[in-house]
Design brief:
Length: about 675
């Protein structure tokens, strides 16, 4: 009886057909697909090298072979429609229907005619699309993926095309709880070991750096919904030493169509704002509220050391009715006993200075600019701070830093600075000609810490380690890193006052036992060191001898290397990343970047290099010349090589430290 009943029940269960794969792009070629044009290359791309989210397996069909300008198509072999749905993952540009001449899409062809179409959504997150083809069962069809588009978002990415009896919905984005418990947590290719990165998704400018209650706070521009720019909110982390970071919940989200753009954070010790409710002073965030219509300056406050935030009910506190008015940096000015703000009119390339007694009511003081690089596209993310001049007791200067989205020294985005005086009302520059903050391509929007203890005496900043022109770098499931925190000083070099940057001393806690070098001669050629690794701190003093060029190559593999070189003829320090690994994900990525650096008083070159899997930060001399560059080498590229060209050089003194990780499950205590 039981057997009969079981057979009856089994007979009543509908048989659900298994999904049938049309294409998953996991092979080394587009076998079975007809290729036209150059957009899709000659074989599937690897999803991890593109920085896409939501793909399955490793391979994808991607029309960004070299740039958004490429056009072409892929057309499948004929197949018979056998199930109710055809489903697929699609990302890339969102194209309007009826604009085929400038469209990138995937379509279903029956008798050569397109009867279903899907496009991306201006996102590098692949989302499921489902076509109901129940009325077409039994007919022959083809899939065509094409890219006739050029310019921004002129590409498409497709993966996992299936026949199925069930439609699909949603995306393949990690949830934070799932990610933290996964074996992949902070173990992905290119994930830095001691630089701050978000756990998931997009990050850009550092925001609101402040020290309070024994914690260094790092807020940052963050998209909680994807691995591309958008939905700007403030991510949040805290640390005791600026290297071992604890990720906290998002501090402030985009709400009601208003994104939370960049800004600063202060500790209101005297409760001038009136927001404080307990024994400790409130933390106040001053940020730009961005909507489609305008940008305003808004404030929010916290009475629990930044764990929860309340946006001020009478925001905005400054509203000029302008679209490009952003990135306030606020600080207390003791001589005038008021809060001061520097903020940018980005498209006008002007900076404005405001003052307030209570952080709510602001008065315009003065303006600065246009100045510096005249060809820049915009001016944003300013900072203003006072520094002592080394070896000149009692003498100080103010430093005004601001960043441009394009036109910087190494191409793309970057920062410039001015020295001068600020009296609480007006900034008067020593010269309207600026100096470069960093000669590499990947240091942007640095901001200094506020509220460091008086007996600390340091001025420290952190920058976004990326470039707007090549920002979609090949990392997944996160994108972007922060620079190491850098201590700042001013030093007179020749007749110039130069900003010097040095890694903060707490990085030394990550060092392992060093390889020591003393008076090592480098003949014309190269010398491989016994030390190796992808997380390194190298300190070298090199006597040029008779060499024309000399330096060090790191992250070296059979066909990869990143070269840090010094050229005697031009007295310049350079980073060459043309052979550094994956340089083809963007046409502007590969290159060599250089900055001026003189010999020290002993006729030698002093170098400090920080290497962390996907980046090099190079500090020349006393830190007056800095180059920051991203790189994407293979995991096996870990050798170190010294080189000389045209003669013999000598490493007079050197230390090579491997560094422990400070982030993720492998972090040192």
């Amino acid at each position: 009886m039981i057997l009969v009943l079981l057979l009856v029940l089994l007979a009543a269960v509908p048989v659900v057909a298994q999904d049938v794969i049309i294409a998953d792009f996991e092979g080394d070629s587009y076998s079975g697909w007809a290729i036209e044009g150059s957009a899709f290359g000659t074989r599937p791309a690897r999803g991890e090298s593109l920085g896409f989210l939501g793909y399955r397996g490793g391979g994808v069909a991607n029309s960004f072979a070299t740039s958004d300008e490429d056009v072409g198509s892929l057309t499948s072999a004929e197949f018979q429609i056998a199930q109710r749905y055809i489903v697929m993952l699609v990302g890339g540009g969102k194209q309007a229907n009826g604009q085929r001449e400038n469209q990138a899409a995937v379509e279903l062809l029956v008798d050569g005619r397109a009867i279903r179409t899907a496009t991306g959504d201006n996102s590098e997150t692949l989302r499921w699309h489902s076509w109901d083809v129940a009325g077409l069962k039994g007919q022959s069809a083809q899939i065509r993926i094409f890219d006739n588009a050029s310019g921004e978002w002129g590409h498409i990415c497709v993966d996992h095309i299936l026949q199925s009896e069930s439609p699909r919905a949603g995306t393949g984005v990690w949830r934070i709880e799932e990610y933290r418990s996964s074996a992949d947590y902070f173990q992905e290719p290119f994930r830095p070991g001691f630089h701050f990165t978000p756990e998931l998704n997009w990050m850009n400018d550092p925001n609101g750096l402040t020290y309070f209650g024994g914690e260094y706070h790092l807020f940052y521009q963050h998209n909680p919904l994807g691995n591309v720019w958008g939905h700007m909110s403030w991510g949040h982390a805290v640390s005791k030493d600026m290297f071992h970071w604890e990720h906290l919940p998002i501090a402030m989200y985009e709400e009601n169509g208003v994104m939370v753009y960049s800004g600063s954070c202060i500790i209101d010790h005297n409760n001038t704002s009136g927001f404080g409710t307990g024994d400790e002073p409130p933390m106040i965030a001053i940020y730009t509220g961005h909507s489609d219509e305008r940008e305003t300056q808004d404030i929010a406050y916290s009475n629990d050391r930044g764990r929860t935030w309340t946006k001020y009910g009478e925001n905005p506190v400054i509203d000029l009715g302008k679209k490009d008015f952003r990135d306030p940096k606020v600080f207390w000015h003791p001589p005038s006993q008021k809060w001061c703000m520097v903020v940018s009119l980005a498209r006008e390339k002007r900076l404005q200075f405001y003052a307030s007694p209570d952080l709510k009511n602001w008065s315009l003081l003065s303006e600065f600019g246009p100045a510096g690089v005249r060809s820049k596209s915009n001016w944003e993310c300013p900072d203003l701070f006072e520094l002592p001049i080394e070896n000149e007791p009692g003498h100080t200067r103010w430093v005004l830093e601001a960043d441009m989205g394009n036109g910087a020294v190494a191409g793309g985005s970057g920062g410039e600075y001015f020295t001068g005086m600020f009296d609480g009302q007006t900034f008067r520059a020593d010269s309207t000609d600026s100096k470069w903050v960093d000669y590499g391509r990947d240091f942007y929007a640095p901001v200094t810490y506020s509220n460091l203890p008086r007996d600390d005496g340091r001025r420290v900043w952190v920058g976004w380690m990326n470039n707007w022109s090549t920002a979609l770098n090949p990392t997944y499931p996160w994108r972007s890193a922060m620079s190491v925190p850098r201590e700042l000083s001013l030093r007179r070099i020749g007749d110039q006052l130069r900003l010097c940057q040095r890694p903060v001393a707490s990085i030394e806690s990550l060092r392992k036992e060093p390889m020591l070098i003393s008076n090592m001669e480098i003949e014309d050629g190269d010398t491989t060191l016994s030390a190796r690794g992808q997380q390194l701190d190298l300190m070298l003093v090199i006597d040029p001898g008779t060499a024309r060029r000399f330096g060090v190559r790191v992250l070296k593999g059979d066909h990869e290397q990143t070269e840090i070189g010094y050229d005697m003829a031009t007295e310049s320090l350079s980073v060459d990343r043309t052979q550094s690994g994956n340089v083809k994900f963007h046409q502007d990525f590969s290159g060599k970047h250089a900055g001026p650096l003189g010999l020290d008083p002993n006729g030698q070159v002093r170098l400090r290099l920080l290497v962390d899997r996907c980046s090099v930060e190079v500090f020349g001399g006393e830190g007056e010349t800095v180059l920051t560059d991203l790189i994407f080498p293979s995991a096996s590229s870990d050798r170190i090589e010294l080189f000389a060209e045209g003669g013999r050089a000598t490493v007079v003194d050197g230390q090579v430290f491997q560094l422990d990780a400070s982030m993720g499950p492998n972090a040192n205590p």
